[in-house]
Amino acid sequence: MLTIGPDVPDGLRPLLGEMLDALRTLKAPGAPSPVFACASAALPPPKAWRQCVALVTDLNILAHSDGFHWIRQDTGGVI
User: Fold this and answer.
1) Quick check: helix, strand or coil at residue 54?
2) Among 9, 18, 35, 55, whose CB has the most other CB atoms within 10 angstroms?
3) Domain segments of the chain as ranges
4) To 5 degrees, how large is the angle CA 42–CA 44–CA 48?
């Protein structure tokens, strides 16, 4: 993975260090992470969020986007 090079200005080092730490956490998470939550009527367009997961709050389920539809994880039906 990337490192902070010697030519990086001192003022940017803390910010870049935090960004690298966040990227490393995403690459190898050590704990569960929050999931986007919204009501079914507010789900974003599935085409823009292919292979992503959302918590559908009014249905109390998880759903994933196949690129065409939001798919319920409990029944496999389309939302």
Assistant:
1) strand
2) 55
3) 1-32, 34-79
4) 175
